[in-house]
Amino acid sequence: MFLGSQFDEKNVHNHVTKDTNEVTLNGVSHNGFTAPEINSFGHSFRAYDAESERQKGVEEFYRLQHINQTYDFVKKMRENYEKLNRAEMSIWECCELLNQVVDDSDPDLDEPQIQHLLQSTEAIRKDYPNEDWLHLTALIHDLGKILLLPQFGELPQWAVVGDTFPVGCAFDEANIHHKFFKENPDIKNPAYNTKDGIYTNGCGLENVMMSWGHDDYMYLVAKENGCTLPSAGLFIIRYHSFYPLHKEGAYSHLMNDEDRENLKWLHIFNKYDLYSKSKVLVDVEKVKPYYQSLIEKYFPAKLKW
Ligand SMILES: [Fe+2]
Ligand SMILES: [Fe+2]
Q1: Is residue 11 part of a domain?
Q2: Ligand 2 center to residue 18 CA distance, Å?
Q3: How much distance in Å is there from the Cα of 140 to the middle of ligand 2?
Q4: CA of 161 relative to ligand 1 center, distance in Å
Q5: How far is 58 from 54, CA to CA, in rounded Å?
Q6: Cα–Cα dist 160/69, whole Å
Q7: Which residues surround ligand 2, an ion (CB under 5 A)?
Q8: Does residue 9 belong to any structural domain of this protein?
Q9: Considering the entire predicted model, what is its pTM?
Q10: In DSSP terms, which residues pair with 89 in a beta bridge?
Q11: Ligand 2 centre distance from Cα of residue 272 (Å)
């Protein structure tokens, strides 16, 4: 069954920088990870022809996303999915479910999702051997993509993947294809179209409603099931597609001190999420016991989804 995420957040950022800035966090210097220059097909990562069909597809994707992700839509989705009444399964079972997804549109990736998850995760594990929470966070960060599956609502692509952004306040120009927001009804609502909108300066991202997608869904699942990952792990899960913030620095006026701390970890994570796609396959059965032990440490055996 093909359930590819046609416009994965990673695929539309041609402006990704191979940034060589060394990140230092808690005294750990992050320079151990070497990004491969060539992907499985022998091309440079994310090198698309701007005129390609794909680019048009990406534009159409963001047109639909920007028109339809309104404050009311997000509120309804949250209320609906908060019920967590669609399935009961373990984290590993969900990994296997997501494995049905082969991202056909990603030119860097022709392996099942579980390989992407494990490649990112194993690369982080090598460089940060003691941050076991980060290993598990990497493994589960995309599990919310099950929203594409019939049992989980079979949501359209624009409600599952792509960059995320706050609703309830003005759409920052740093958002990709910002022009398409002009057809979003919220742009005419005076309650929602100012810089702060319904929020206050420094209110903290946890009080901000984000556009609906796999990030916020997985965060909801983790939180409601009593996951004990540290706040930075939950932050990565919830905001890894929030490119306007972590790539462009937009919406920083909504952050509080905790967000700023957590953002450092998100920057580290993001580097691995983008560059750990390669032909070197991870032996799933070999690494499974380690990840099972982390799942047991931070999650209940069965979760409601
Ligand atoms: Fe993602
Ligand atoms: Fe990812």
Answers
A1: no
A2: 17
A3: 9
A4: 7
A5: 6
A6: 11
A7: 142, 273
A8: no
A9: 0.84
A10: 303
A11: 9
- State the distance from the centre of ligand 2 to the C-alpha of 273, rounded, in angstroms: 5
Residue 247's pLDDT is 96
What was the pLDDT predicted at 201? 98
Centre of ligand 2 from the C-alpha of residue 197, in Å: 30
The tens digit of pLDDT for each residue in 83-113 reads 999 999 999 999 999 887 655 545 555 677 7
CA of 56 to the centre of ligand 1 (A): 21
- In the chain, the number of structural domains is 1
Residue 194 belongs to domain spanning = 47-304
Helices 284-298 and 113-127: crossing angle in degrees, nearest 10, is 70
Residue corresponding to tokens 């009311």: 72
pLDDT for 116: 80
Give the other-Cβ count within 10 Å of 104's Cβ: 12
Residue 71 falls inside a structural domain = yes
Q: Compute the distance from residue 215 Cα to the ligand 1 centre, in Å.
A: 6
DSSP 162-200: S---BSSS---TTSTTGGGGGGSGGGG-TTTSSSSTTS-
Which ligand is nearest the CA of 273, by number?
Answer: 2
CA proximity to 23, closest of 274, 276, 269: 269
Using the 8-state DSSP alphabet, how is residue 209 labeled?
A: P
Contact 145/154 with Cβ under 8 angstroms?
A: no
CA–centroid distance, 117 to ligand 2, in Å, is: 7
Centre of ligand 1 to C-alpha 8, Å, is 7
Euclidean distance between CA atoms 166 and 254, whole angstroms:
10
Between the CA of 183 and the centroid of ligand 2 the distance, in Å, is: 29
256 CA → ligand 2 middle, Å: 25
Strand, helix or coil for residue 224? helix
In this structure, is residue 3 part of a structural domain? Answer: no
User: Using CA atoms in the order 220, 230, 145, 285, what is the torsion angle rounded to 10 degrees?
Assistant: -130
In which residue ranges of the chain is pLDDT below 50? 1-6, 8-38, 40-43, 48, 105
**CB 106 within 8 Å of CB 274:** no
Predicted pLDDT of residue 217:
98
Centroid of ligand 1 to alpha carbon of 58 (angstroms): 16
